[in-house]
Specification:
The complex is a heterodimer. By secondary structure, chain A is of the alpha+beta class. Chain A is 32% helix and 27% strand. Chain A has three helices and six strands, in the order ββααββαββ. In chain A, strands 1-2-3-4-6-5 form a six-stranded antiparallel sheet, covered by helices on one side.
Chain lengths: 140, 111
């Protein structure tokens, strides 16, 4: 895959950071159509770009042949988004706490913490060799 | 993200616009900052009034800018932090790291 592929409620991109704005445009377009307010749209867009970046950089290690897939759906007054990479899997509990004093000036390591703060529910499904799917929900 | 820059009373002012989410955004801001340092401008204000939102990549860029400037005996201040970014700075405790002001004038006067 050399460029983003959109199918209904799904966008799949090669592991290239330049395609992040394509994911954001797709997700924000869906959220606007669902009728969410600007603040909720920003919270979700921030969270999606965090996790897609993690998928591209840390999981798929910027290998363009590997993809990150984002699927969005609306259930009553909740939005659910699932983000799947093709990496080696990871343990979300093994991440350093970014708000500890010794980590405050680190340039990286805040993404998952921010997602957990902005979204109502975040579930990690990670299996060695089978990639990671993060499913997150926000009520509106 | 788009980036414009200006100067007031000898202080460099950077004005990013749009969303800061990573990829080319990080390079643009990082390169501009190093360009300023190399030209001797080490007191910088980043005006965030036109930044819709940023993610942790954006926060990382701000931290990188702060430490790069401090290592060059310079300083970075923030101006016009929007509610959404203020909320992120609070969640991540980075409010304790950055000096933020309600206007560019106030930020410039603080040096």
């Amino acid at each position: 895959m050399k460029k983003p592929k959109i199918t209904g409620d799904c966008i799949e991109i090669p592991s290239v950071e330049d395609f992040l704005p394509d994911v954001d445009d797709f997700i924000e377009g869906k959220l606007e159509a669902y009728g969410l307010n600007k603040s909720d749209i920003a919270d979700i867009a921030i969270s999606v770009t965090e996790l897609v970046t993690n998928g591209i950089v840390h999981a798929n290690k910027l290998i363009p042949e590997k993809t990150v897939k984002v699927v969005i759906s609306k259930k009553n007054s909740a939005v659910e988004i699932a983000i799947t990479d093709q990496g080696d899997g990871f343990d979300p509990d093994a991440i350093d706490n970014p708000i500890e004093d010794e980590n405050l000036l680190k340039e990286v390591g805040r993404g998952v913490f921010i997602v957990k703060s902005l979204m109502d529910r975040v579930v990690f499904d990670s299996k060695p060799g089978k990639g990671t799917t993060v499913t997150m929900t926000k009520h509106f | 993200m788009k980036l414009s820059d200006s100067e007031k009373d000898g202080i460099a002012i950077l004005e990013p616009k749009g969303k800061i989410m990573g990829g080319p955004d990080a390079t643009l801001l990082h390169d501009k900052l190093h360009e300023l340092i190399e030209s001797g401008k080490k007191k910088v204000v980043i005006d965030l009034s036109k930044v819709e939102w940023m993610n942790s990549t954006g926060l990382g860029i701000l931290i990188s800018s702060l430490t790069t400037l401090r290592n060059s005996q310079g300083e970075l201040k923030l101006a016009n932090v929007t509610d959404k970014i203020q909320s992120l700075l609070t969640i991540t405790k980075l409010v304790t790291v950055f000096e933020a002001f309600d206007s560019i004038d106030d930020a410039v006067k603080s040096f």
